[in-house]
Known about the structure:
This protein is mainly α. The protein has helices at residues 3-30, 37-49, 55-62, 66-78, 100-124, 126-145, and strands at 82-86, 94-98. Helix 2 packs across helix 5 and helix 3 (55-62) packs across helix 4 (66-78).
Amino acid sequence: xxxxxxxxxxxxxxxxxxADQLLRNRLSRILPKGMEISHFSVLNxxxxxxxxxxxxxxxxxxxxxxxxxxxxxxxxxxxxxxxxRPDWDDARRKMVAISPAGRRARDHAIAAIAPVINxxxxxxxxxxxxxxxxxxxxxxxxxxxxx
Length: 147
């Protein structure tokens, strides 16, 4: 690999990691009290898919261990944001669904986050954001595949 390619790769990933850290820090401060980014992410996913998922499916979706997902789901269940029930076809598995309270909490979080992310997109310009999305999507897909 050339020195130039190496420098480009390091710069790209450095920018992505720094932007991720800054965004997480900002969102953590504006999410509703007690809600973590992981909680919001799971609620948002469950609201989007509008169907039940197993904890294993959710762990795979978010690229976390099953133990980490179990911890997140336990906190969401304790808050009343998800319902966890046995799988009627396989008693060894559980099924997770967003509750009405979870949907309200997710909507409240979206309302808190929207002004911040909309402002960033407006400052960057919609066309610039649209132009970078395919590159970021391809990067995510390649990383998901391990390549």
